[in-house]
Write a structure and sequence with these properties.
- By secondary structure, this protein is mostly helical.
- It has a domain at 65-79 and 86-186.
- Helix content is 49%, strand content 3%.
- The protein contains nine helices and two strands.
- It has helices at residues 3-15, 17-21, 65-78, 93-102, 106-130, 139-147, 160-177, 181-186, 203-208; strands at residues 22-24, 30-33.
- The protein has a two-stranded antiparallel ribbon.
- A hairpin with a 5-residue loop joins strand 1 (22-24) and strand 2 (30-33).
- Helix 5 crosses helix 7 (160-177).
- The protein is globular and about 60 Å long.
- The two termini are 47 Å apart.
Amino acid sequence: MDRRRTIQWILAASATMPLLESRVGAAGTRAVTAERPVASQGYGADPDLTKVYHPGEVWPLIFTPAQRHTAAALCDLIIPADAVSPSASSVGVVDFIDEWVSAPYPPQQADRPIVIDGLAWMDGEAARRYGKPFTGLDTTQQCAICDDIAYEPQAQPPFAAAARFFARYRDLTAGAFYSTPAGRKDVQYIGNVPLPRFDGPSPEVLRRVGVAEIPT
């Protein structure tokens, strides 16, 4: 079957869709009415994209103060401050993660128990090993816990669930951080910046990638 014939069939099927809703009898009365699916409640109106929203204004946030404290400590262990950029928590990454797991959409709702249970595990494991919550540990102790869950394929069976949490939490942290101005600056991303001129790749770059310089 060629592409033209397929398109003709699709258009023909589309044209008959109104006939599926109702069929009019000889006397002009509706003989059959197809049942329409009941519309779901949905998520409400879209937010006003011209407005600046603050955390918690679009939907209620679910993190408790203790969870935010643990979340911030873990964020800063993943992306700490250095000479080039600030820490993850200082640029609002915890707010992003709180917004993410509080959202009503299915992907975010799937992440919610992973993150909430994972933060609880971090505190529980810190208490088991050192008798303190995760935020009360020094960096060496925090790293010792994270080393056991940092690479999911090599995590021991007792740490499998925690390793899945850490992998997802690390992705959320990095995704949030590197979408901020500080994160873009950290990787020297210069997109969305107007340039007075663009000369294209330099001859050196073209040679490195094996492309001959295009004569002007």
